[in-house]
Design goal:
This protein has 212 residues and is an alpha+beta fold. It has a single domain, classed as Aminopeptidase. Helices cover 22% and strands 26% of the residues. The protein is built from five helices and nine strands, in the order E-H-H-E-E-E-H-E-H-E-E-E-E-H. The strands form two sheets. Strands 1, 2, 3, 4, 7 and 9 form a six-stranded mixed β-sheet that branches. Helix 1 runs antiparallel to helix 2. The model has no long low-confidence stretch (mean pLDDT 95).
Length: 212
């Protein structure tokens, strides 16, 4: 990384030796953010052996000998109205330790891996998230590109669902539904058991959380 702001950071592919640390970074980043506790670290763990997991885009951010960030990509698809299936990508969770958030580290990680995804030949990415954040990376409303979030009626606005073409025109002429990859839905009891591998943390119900 050449910019002075991030000159002490290394962005590299994750190794098996990094797994626990990356999962703990993810846990710290999401703990009590959207719900009491979190399940994102378990989602990361379960995807590692999933056929849709893209190892070539499994990156960490390292400072010194400490991992402070991580991003995961998985293969996904759009079910087109004409019955065809268009293969694309999805990323997330994107994690940065709380004490390093707000410093552009997550954005740097996203930009590096988006460039790498294009180099690998992938045509488009679909995500759910904050449009005010992801628009800076070139993401636009899925609805504006004829791609709809399957969990919601097509006529309902879904600004949180966004797409980005990695190849110009990749989504041209396409209309269809995107469904979150199956691995993003996990059983709470399995999350609870997995969470015992990490240091105890207090689950709290906080204002602004999306789920109980």
């Amino acid at each position: 990384m050449s910019d002075d702001k991030h000159k002490n950071l290394i962005i590299r592919l994750e190794t098996e030796e990094d797994w626990y640390e990356s999962e703990n970074v993810t846990r710290e980043a999401f703990w009590n953010k959207y719900r009491p506790g979190c399940d994102e670290h378990y989602i990361l763990n379960t995807f590692r052996c999933h056929p849709d997991f893209v190892k070539e885009l499994d990156y960490v951010v390292e400072m010194g000998d400490k991992i402070i960030g991580h991003i995961m990509y998985v293969k996904s698809e759009i079910l087109c109205d004409d019955g065809q299936i268009q293969k694309i990508l999805t990323f997330g969770p994107v994690s940065v330790l709380p004490e390093f958030q707000g410093k552009g580290i997550g954005g740097k990680l996203i930009r590096v891996t988006l460039t790498r995804a294009a180099e690998l030949g992938f045509g488009a990415i679909a995500i759910t998230g904050d449009p005010n954040y992801y628009q800076r990376f070139g993401f636009v409303s899925g609805q504006s590109m004829g791609v709809y979030y399957a969990a919601m009626p097509r006529e309902q606005e879904t600004p949180f669902f966004m797409v980005k073409e990695l190849k110009d025109g990749f989504l041209n002429g396409l209309t269809g539904n995107f469904t979150d990859p199956e691995g993003y839905h996990v059983a709470p009891e399995k999350v609870e058991k997995f969470d015992l591998k990490f240091p105890p943390k207090l689950k709290e119900k906080l204002p602004g959380q999306l789920w109980d």
